[in-house]
């Protein structure tokens, strides 16, 4: 039985995970942490992580970037692995996470779905083949109107995966309204759309002379992220210090 501490338990993802874990015989949520305490949960909820006195095997985090430093401090002090799903972390927060992974197991992933993690691999091959024929690369992501970070963590992870396969020679362009210039061949355009209840859509467009190749992923519910997060928690609870991602969970290593 994996004992989960849910950080951000009263948010949208925290509540989807609470529902999924209720039906899982191999996992349970033993405590939650959230600054807003307006929901009745079947586990104790703490509004300040430093007052948490319940033992757990792993923390799942879906909260907000600002909350990550205190979460990491707590996890280090208790030697608890963290499945870190919050997006929009700045460089300083990412450095903190990388440093902490020398002491505890951390799985950092902007997208817990199987499909997006497959796409992170597929785009490498597509980028290598198509950019050698001068195709341009643009990424469009669409999310609900409650999302605070832009572009999405997933769009950035896809761009990073493409860039790594191209010797990191590409720069990212988020806004074309400021300059009247043609696009550079070595850039990846990244564009964010926000509206309604869109769960999460990502399109990677490779546009060449007279042909377009497009890879798309559509999340039809938040359950796909929750299932991935719970699988990752079971996986990570058995691991020692280090940095992990969903590829490790999918491949079981
Ligand atoms: N990796 C992945 O697959 C996915 C990642 N995400 C990411 O997860 C994050 C959360 O998403 P979502 O659930 O939709 O967002 P929500 O805003 O619905 O939930 C976040 C929760 O965390 C709470 N919170 C804020 N500050 C703290 C704090 N200091 N300590 C503890 N809890 C805090 C919020 O409270 P309050 O509302 O009062 O601020 C809220 O209840 C986002 O960064 C999102 O991009 C989302 C889906 C999939
Ligand atoms: O905020 C969301 O909802 C999501 N955020 C993640 C991101 O920023 O990539 C993943 C998913 O698309 C949903």
From TrEMBL:
<dbReference type="GO" id="GO:0016726">
    <property type="term" value="F:oxidoreductase activity, acting on CH or CH2 groups, NAD or NADP as acceptor"/>
</dbReference>
<keyword id="KW-0220">Diaminopimelate biosynthesis</keyword>
<feature type="binding site">
    <location>
        <begin position="85"/>
        <end position="87"/>
    </location>
    <ligand>
        <name>NAD(+)</name>
    </ligand>
</feature>
<dbReference type="InterPro" id="IPR000846">
    <property type="entry name" value="DapB_N"/>
</dbReference>
<dbReference type="GO" id="GO:0050661">
    <property type="term" value="F:NADP binding"/>
</dbReference>
<comment type="function">
    <text>Catalyzes the conversion of 4-hydroxy-tetrahydrodipicolinate (HTPA) to tetrahydrodipicolinate.</text>
</comment>
<dbReference type="GO" id="GO:0008839">
    <property type="term" value="F:4-hydroxy-tetrahydrodipicolinate reductase"/>
</dbReference>
<feature type="active site" description="Proton donor/acceptor">
    <location>
        <position position="143"/>
    </location>
</feature>
<dbReference type="GO" id="GO:0009089">
    <property type="term" value="P:lysine biosynthetic process via diaminopimelate"/>
</dbReference>
<dbReference type="InterPro" id="IPR022663">
    <property type="entry name" value="DapB_C"/>
</dbReference>
<dbReference type="GO" id="GO:0005829">
    <property type="term" value="C:cytosol"/>
</dbReference>
<dbReference type="Pfam" id="PF05173">
    <property type="entry name" value="DapB_C"/>
</dbReference>
<dbReference type="GO" id="GO:0019877">
    <property type="term" value="P:diaminopimelate biosynthetic process"/>
</dbReference>
<protein>
    <recommendedName>
        <fullName>4-hydroxy-tetrahydrodipicolinate reductase</fullName>
        <ecNumber>1.17.1.8</ecNumber>
    </recommendedName>
</protein>
<dbReference type="GO" id="GO:0051287">
    <property type="term" value="F:NAD binding"/>
</dbReference>
<keyword id="KW-0457">Lysine biosynthesis</keyword>
<dbReference type="Pfam" id="PF01113">
    <property type="entry name" value="DapB_N"/>
</dbReference>
<keyword id="KW-0560">Oxidoreductase</keyword>
<keyword id="KW-0028">Amino-acid biosynthesis</keyword>
<feature type="active site" description="Proton donor">
    <location>
        <position position="147"/>
    </location>
</feature>
<comment type="similarity">
    <text>Belongs to the DapB family.</text>
</comment>
<dbReference type="InterPro" id="IPR023940">
    <property type="entry name" value="DHDPR_bac"/>
</dbReference>
<feature type="binding site">
    <location>
        <begin position="8"/>
        <end position="13"/>
    </location>
    <ligand>
        <name>NAD(+)</name>
    </ligand>
</feature>
<feature type="binding site">
    <location>
        <position position="34"/>
    </location>
    <ligand>
        <name>NAD(+)</name>
    </ligand>
</feature>
<feature type="binding site">
    <location>
        <position position="144"/>
    </location>
    <ligand>
        <name>(S)-2,3,4,5-tetrahydrodipicolinate</name>
    </ligand>
</feature>
<keyword id="KW-0520">NAD</keyword>
<keyword id="KW-0521">NADP</keyword>
<feature type="domain" description="Dihydrodipicolinate reductase N-terminal">
    <location>
        <begin position="3"/>
        <end position="112"/>
    </location>
</feature>
<feature type="binding site">
    <location>
        <begin position="153"/>
        <end position="154"/>
    </location>
    <ligand>
        <name>(S)-2,3,4,5-tetrahydrodipicolinate</name>
    </ligand>
</feature>
<comment type="subunit">
    <text>Homotetramer.</text>
</comment>
<dbReference type="InterPro" id="IPR036291">
    <property type="entry name" value="NAD(P)-bd_dom_sf"/>
</dbReference>
<feature type="binding site">
    <location>
        <begin position="109"/>
        <end position="112"/>
    </location>
    <ligand>
        <name>NAD(+)</name>
    </ligand>
</feature>
<comment type="pathway">
    <text>Amino-acid biosynthesis; L-lysine biosynthesis via DAP pathway; (S)-tetrahydrodipicolinate from L-aspartate: step 4/4.</text>
</comment>
<dbReference type="InterPro" id="IPR022664">
    <property type="entry name" value="DapB_N_CS"/>
</dbReference>
<feature type="domain" description="Dihydrodipicolinate reductase C-terminal">
    <location>
        <begin position="115"/>
        <end position="250"/>
    </location>
</feature>
<keyword id="KW-0963">Cytoplasm</keyword>
